[in-house]
Specification:
The complex is a heterodimer of chains A (about 425) and B (about 260).
Chain A (H helix, E strand, L loop, with lengths): L1 H21 L8 H9 L2 H7 L4 E6 L4 H14 L5 E2 L7 H11 L10 E5 L5 H8 L3 E4 L7 H4 L2 H13 L5 E5 L3 H4 L9 E5 L24 E9 L5 E9 L2 E10 L4 H16 L4 H10 L6 E9 L2 E8 L4 H11 L5 E6 L26 E7 L3 H11 L6 E3 L3 H11 L5 E6 L1 H10 L7
Parallel strand pairs in A: 1-3, 1-4, 2-3, 4-5, 5-6, 6-7, 11-15, 12-13, 12-15, 13-14
Antiparallel strand pairs in A: 7-8, 8-9, 10-11
Helix pairs in contact in A: 1-2, 2-5, 4-10, 4-11, 6-8
Chain B lengths: L3 E7 L10 H13 L3 E7 L12 E4 L4 H14 L1 H9 L3 E5 L1 H6 L2 E3 L5 E3 L6 E4 L9 E9 L1 H7 L12 E8 L2 E4 L8 E5 L9 E2 L1 E3 L2 E4 L5 H4 L1 H15 L13 H14 L2
Parallel strand pairs in B: 1-2, 1-3, 3-4, 4-14
Antiparallel strand pairs in B: 5-6, 7-10, 8-9, 8-11, 11-12, 13-14
Classes of the chains: A alpha/beta (about 425), B alpha/beta (about 260).
């Protein structure tokens, strides 16, 4: 019966996606999944059941980058993998992707899928996903009004793990909230970690439980260097399954220690699915930053070219990490773009939890504030600076891009710190469309 | 004469959600700009409070577990001193969870009622069944007349102060004010405030203030920040003629009016 019922649903979804795109009302990553999910909830399991191997990445920060890194490794290994579109990590986004990738008979040919899944969504769909591997990157405070409380998010993920006894689990050992998630569960667990002296950079919460013996399986990063061009270099060693793993001098085009975590999770999952170390290394070398996560877009007019490096900020943790990353750069030019749409979090209180005071140490060349909450951002900076530099503020991102371009010199880099929808809007204004 | 104020931040380690530290940042910076000496002391769980040492108390909201821990500690180590201070006119500001905690009872996420700190006669209850969702969104209120009247006379020159307070609320608890001495801080113009039917926002008893506004509250409402500072000064120096110099608050009020202009229902 379902084999017949699925056909008009898939056709409907495909037409709807097409209409959404043609009328430029969006990228079509939400609506088909939203409608089908409500009217015919069985479709999600029906489509998922056809994919034998499913990997899930969750956590508050780093889902997209981890997914993109792992995808690059898997593709370097000449395998194809189905992924949900960047940031479309609610069940509607996953369902939309499945509907798009199936043929009109509702058949999906992919043998494996790699989904980033939003933390609150995971316990609701984990039974349908039946993932072989679940990775948790970290648990920072996310958009304040999405769930209210980080304790609840922690419970969501724990519940999801309890519902997935078949899954192998990859956890961030350094994040106290994450490292204890698998306590008492029968699952096989691999822990990833950074050298201890770097942990002060991260806003982890809670107290690490004292463990008496080392984990059976773990992957550690060492000799981490962040280069001037903001690429990161490091080596890893550890043990996954019964096999020791060592990879030297991995270079990734993503700036910051926090991206080393994402790479560690990607490396660990790749090892779990038996991809060779040299392929993993090459895959990470091939990786290009997921959009908005360190991606560079060039704006050109005549002979003048200015680089815009997009560093997504969606919570105090990300804001702090990205500010630390750029604060030592001489003649710093910053564009901060804060929107308050649903996907950004409608409460901008988190700007006050971000430690922007460290910018007092920076050599600032220019600061521009934009987005719907440009004025809130300007106000935050007024209270952060001991001596307030000149700040240009306008809600229009179009204006902000034009202004920063006009006041920059050829070859300059502008560091853009946008919230999620501001980032999408900036990319669109610069002629980059959403990924296919 | 050089004025000085002592601020006490209650339980910053446990009650630190929703950017409410912004209120401390605002008080510190504004004291600095107003040329008022300002020291901030943190009182955590296990620290004893002493009376007559503080001019302004601040308390934010936290997660359920943390709020429970705090109540017990408060009654053990702080109640007597802080209750005496607030009865004597010391300024106290609680925001959201902090506001609910100040009352006689408040509720946990699971709807259970718990004893509060008891420094203001309010109660917070779980919403009835007719209320489906949390009160979430931008909140705009009109400051009560008496408070606004005083506020508009605290500066050394005439200023055209907004009559509004703006912020962002996110709570399920419904707060009722229990006696005549406890007045609403504002009438709700947009959003909910104390209760789901959205009539009043926040509370004031003597110089104890509570509000549901995050955002953060004081940075976007500099007149309120200055008012707390002024109340603390006239009490400490026992001189009602003290006036505050007027700062350039154009950036503050631009952010303030942006909310009033764009988010009013």
């Amino acid at each position: 019966m379902k084999q017949i019922a699925i056909v008009p649903i898939v056709i409907f979804a495909k037409i709807l996606t097409w209409i959404v795109k043609v009328t430029k009302r969006g990228s079509g990553t939400a609506l088909p999944g939203l409608i089908v999910g409500r009217r015919a909830p069985w479709v999600l399991s029906y489509l998922l059941e056809q994919i034998p191997h499913i990997i899930v990445v969750t956590g508050t920060n780093g889902k997209t980058t981890t997914q993109t890194m792992l995808r690059s490794i898997i593709e370097t290994d000449n395998q194809v993998v189905l992924t949900n579109a960047t940031g479309a990590n609610l069940s509607r986004g996953i369902l939309s992707e499945l509907l798009k990738r199936s043929n009109i008979l509702g058949k999906i040919s992919f043998k494996s899928a790699l989904f980033e899944v939003e933390e609150g969504t995971l316990p609701r769909i984990v039974a349908q996903l039946k993932p072989e591997i679940i990775a948790v990157t970290n648990l920072y405070r996310d958009q304040l009004d999405a769930y209210g409380e980080i304790d609840i998010t922690e419970k969501y993920i724990r519940t999801a793990l309890e519902k997935a006894p078949q899954a192998r689990i990859v956890l961030n050992q350094d994040d106290p909230r994450v490292s204890k998630l698998a306590q008492g569960l029968p699952n096989e667990v691999v822990y990833v970690s950074l050298p201890e002296e770097l942990l002060t950079h991260f806003p982890y919460e809670g107290i690490q439980s004292k463990k008496t013996k080392p984990h059976k399986q773990s992957v550690k990063a060492k000799s981490i260097q962040i280069h001037e061009d903001l690429t990161s270099e490091f080596s890893v060693e550890g043990k996954v399954g019964d096999n020791p793993i060592t990879i030297e001098d991995i270079r990734i085009a993503s700036p910051g220690f926090f991206h080393v975590y994402n790479a560690l999770v990607a490396i660990t999952i790749a090892s779990l699915i038996k991809i060779k170390p040299e392929t993993i290394k090459a895959g990470l070398q091939n990786f290009e930053p997921a959009f908005g996560r360190g991606e560079v877009i060039m704006k050109k007019e005549g002979t003048k070219a200015v680089h815009y490096r997009l560093l997504l900020v969606k919570n105090p943790a990300g804001f702090n990490l990205n500010t630390q990353l750029i604060q030592a750069i001489p003649n710093l030019k910053i564009l901060i773009a804060i929107n308050d749409n649903t996907a950004d979090g409608t409460d901008v209180s988190w700007l006050w939890d971000s430690k922007l005071e460290i910018l007092n140490e920076s050599s600032i060349s220019s600061i521009t504030c934009s987005g719907t909450r440009a004025k809130d951002m300007h106000l935050r900076l007024k209270y952060a600076f001991n001596i307030l530099p000149e700040i240009h503020t306008d809600e229009s991102l179009d204006w902000a891009l034009q202004h920063t371009f006009e006041t920059a010199k050829h070859g300059d880099t502008i560091f853009v710190l946008p919230t999620y929808t501001a980032m999408l809007e900036i990319r669109k204004l610069m002629g980059r469309q959403l990924e296919e | 004469m050089q004025y000085e104020l002592a601020i006490t931040h209650l339980y910053p380690e446990n009650l630190n959600l929703y950017g409410d530290t912004g209120n401390l940042i605002a008080l510190k910076r504004r004291c600095e700009w107003l040329d008022i000496g300002c020291s901030v002391k943190n009182l955590e769980i296990g620290d004893k409070a002493n009376k007559d040492k503080t001019d302004i108390y601040f308390m934010g909201g936290g997660q359920d577990n943390d709020q429970l821990k705090v109540v017990e500690d408060f009654h053990d180590l702080k109640y007597k001193a802080i209750k005496e201070d607030t009865e004597n006119g010391v300024v106290f500001l609680g925001v959201c969870g902090g506001y609910q905690l100040m009352g006689h009872s408040f509720i946990m996420g699971d709807g259970k009622s718990t004893r509060g700190l008891g420094i203001i006669n309010i109660d917070t209850k779980a919403p009835g069944k007719e209320v489906k969702e949390r009160c979430i969104g931008n909140l705009i209120g009109e400051i009560n007349e008496q408070t606004y009247f005083e506020m508009s006379r605290m500066y050394d020159q005439d200023r055209d102060l907004p009559r509004t307070l703006v912020g962002f609320e996110n709570h399920s608890g419904q707060t009722t004010l229990n006696d005549e001495q406890v007045k609403p801080l504002a009438q709700t113009l947009s959003g909910f405030g104390n209760t789901h039917n959205g009539k009043t926002e926040g509370a004031r008893y003597k110089n104890v203030f509570g509000s549901y506004m995050h955002g953060s509250f004081l940075p976007k409402n500099p007149h309120m920040a200055d008012y707390l500072i002024w109340l603390a000064l006239i009490r400490k120096y026992n001189d009602r003629s003290i006036k505050l110099p007027s700062l350039d608050d154009s950036i503050e009020f631009e952010a303030h009016s942006y909310i009033v202009d764009n988010y009013a229902a």
